[in-house]
Write a structure and sequence with these properties.
Strand order of the largest sheet: 1-2-12-9-14-7-6-3-5
Number of helices: 11
């Protein structure tokens, strides 16, 4: 049981939102996790899942392109928590590639079995692996901010995606079963005790805290994180919005669960991922003497985290170079300069 269930404040809920009039601009302006109740209630997959797990599986099989998907399988003893082994040098589950239908065929006889293995398919591209699915089951994403977005599907039994963050904004539809999201603002990172940069259970750094049985002696700051948590309880057909970089712990609570999510960013595509900057900062900054680090913090505040117009405001336009707003051409120049210097 998640210690936050029934304890942390609930994520705000908006009722009676029309599926073709989702308030994207307000959500992005307020940057607050929000449940939009029943927005996807009319999806055929949602209706099938309310009939039975088998009906939902049959609908998914209809769209299966036969391409192998990445499947994670854990022993019953992990209780659905895909995580590390005891030494934190490996993982407590195994991965394999197989057609989605093969996974569903393996899962279906185990529905309702409390000693079943844990089955999980994460972040699988809908258009590539389930072509045609979105023609019947989709959100109305006609806003310009969704010009570049990724639609994915997540399938499994009672599983837990350990607390982590994503670099994109997210619209998450609970399509089959029930989901619980425990959400934390980005500034709670230290109180969530991030694990190794690699390996990771699913590609992102995860919290080392066991939300079912927190060890407050090892992770005392988690009490503070709990004070900032919000919990979203989702039924089939509900939609959850949460902003980029928010930490989220995701529990699938029914014997069979499907989530469909949409990731997008509002930053230009030519910008590099800040994750690369973080890795390079570990290499170039972290182990310098404290006075130097303090000086570099001031430089980063001035050039990067402060008002972007100030560093170049006193310079002639022709002399601003990368201090001017970055465009695709300037991004290519900066990338080439970095690669040249890194490869010296």
């Amino acid at each position: 049981m998640n210690v936050l269930a029934g304890q942390a404040p609930a994520v705000r809920v908006w009722e009676a939102i029309a599926p073709d009039a989702l308030p994207f601009e307000r959500l992005m302006a307020e940057q607050t996790p929000t449940i939009l109740k029943g927005v996807a209630a009319d999806w055929p997959l949602v209706r099938a899942g309310l009939q039975s797990a088998g009906a939902a599986m049959d609908l998914l099989r209809r769209f299966d392109a036969g391409r192998p998907v990445v499947t994670f399988i854990g022993a019953p003893e992990i209780n659905g928590r895909f995580f590390y082994d005891e030494a934190v040098t490996g993982l407590n589950f195994a991965g394999r590639r197989e057609p989605l239908t093969a996974l569903l065929d393996a899962m279906q006889p185990q529905i309702g079995n409390v000693e079943a293995p844990s089955f999980y398919v994460g972040s699988t591209d809908l258009d590539e692996y389930l072509p045609g699915f979105r023609a019947e089951n989709d959100l109305a994403l006609d806003h310009p901010m969704f010009a570049q977005h990724l639609a994915s599907i997540w399938i499994g039994n009672r599983t837990t995606a350990t607390c982590h963050y994503d670099m994109s904004h997210n619209l998450a539809v609970c399509a089959v079963g029930r989901r619980r999201f425990s959400l934390f603002p980005p500034d709670q990172i230290a109180n969530l005790y991030p694990g190794p940069l690699e390996p990771t259970p699913g590609g992102q750094v995860v919290s080392m805290v066991d939300f079912g049985a927190p060890d407050f002696d090892r992770h005392p700051g988690f009490r503070e994180a709990m004070a900032h948590a919000q919990v979203a309880e989702l039924d089939a057909g509900d939609l959850l919005f949460y902003p980029a970089m928010w930490w989220h712990h995701v529990e699938a609570l029914a014997p069979f669960n499907v989530l469909v999510n949409y990731w997008w960013n509002t930053s230009p595509g030519f910008l590099d991922t800040p994750q690369l900057t973080l890795l390079h900062a570990l290499l170039s900054l972290r182990d310098r003497p404290a006075p130097e680090k303090a000086a570099w913090r001031s430089l980063f505040d001035y050039y990067v985290f402060g008002d972007a117009e100030i560093p170049a405001a006193h310079l002639p336009e022709a002399a601003r170079g990368p201090l001017a707003p970055i465009d695709a051409l300037q991004a290519r120049r900066l990338r080439a300069q970095l690669l040249h210097r890194l490869n010296r």
